[in-house]
Amino acid sequence: MSTDYSQFDQQQQFDNPPAPPSRQGGGCGKGCLIALVILGVMAAVFVGGIVSVVNHIIQNTTQDPKEIASRLKEVYPTAQLPASYSGRIALKIDIWKVKMDMMAFTTDDADVEDNGEVVTGNSLLLFAFKAPGMDQEELENSIQVGNNSGTVIEKREYKVRAGQYQFDGFLQKVQRRKEGQERRIYSQILVPLGNSTMLVMQSDKDKVDEAALQQFLQSIAKDCPTATLVEKPKEKEKK
């Protein structure tokens, strides 16, 4: 009795289809070529975006005290800088949904590096950073990045009295160490002003210039949502 293998052969051909004919040449084909072109365009857009951001930062950075004072008045029209303080550097960024506004005011004897970091002396830093989903803690972390990623070694709540107003803030010690240099410890008072804005008074000494901080806060208190009125203003005596 003979056996019919035709069905077995058909099933074997279905399970193991013949391999497609090999292509000649070492090219990757039209699909690969299109992918390379797309990647090239994306790279060009990315690099162009970086160049645009860098140009934006450069154009909006200034060391002109008059320009910095003008920017301060745009944010707080009644602001008055303490005696002997002047603008040293200011940076403004407004890209996509990220907005940053930084102004540093120092005494004349302060040592300030090109990146805006105050190495020695007294400084008053106004820092605003708005980004989607940013909270108070992230704002403080952003300031630490701007402060050369210093390490906070001590921190406690601190109230600052400024005339008839009071601000709830923090007193902290920050340690920084640069390669080849001895560590430095800075004293800072951080005062949230509202609207994603923080004011930092800093000194490389054990205490900050709190009198200057109080004077500045008193001048802008009416425009700060975080200011608490603790004393009613005295009415002027009628003549």
Give short descriptive properties of this protein.
single chain; 239 residues; alpha+beta; 9-stranded antiparallel β-sheet; two-stranded antiparallel sheet; 5 helices; 33% strand
Structure description:
- The termini are far apart.
- This protein has a domain at 63-229.
- The longest helix is centred in the N-terminal third of the chain and has 31 residues, at 29-59.
- The chain contains 5 helices and 11 strands.
- The chain is globular, with a radius of gyration of 31 Å.
- The protein has helices spanning 6-15, 29-59, 65-75, 136-146, 210-220; strands spanning 61-62, 85-95, 98-107, 111-112, 118-120, 123-130, 151-162, 165-176, 184-194, 197-203, 228-229.
- The model is unreliable at 7-14, 21-27 and 44-50 (pLDDT under 50).
- Strands 1, 2, 3, 6, 7, 8, 9, 10 and 11 form a 9-stranded antiparallel sheet that branches.
- By secondary structure, it is an alpha+beta fold.
Can you write the helix and strand succession as a string?
HHEHEEEEEHEEEEHE
Largest sheet: 9 strands, antiparallel
Contiguous helical run count? 5
Mean pLDDT: 77
**What proportion of the residues form beta strands (DSSP E)?**
25-35%
Global structural class:
alpha+beta
For the CA atoms, what is the radius of gyration?
A: 31 Å
Give the overall shape: globular
> Uncertain segments of ≥5 residues (pLDDT<50)?
7-14, 21-27, 44-50
CA distance, first residue to last residue: 135 Å
The overall strand count is 11
Give helix % range. 25-40%
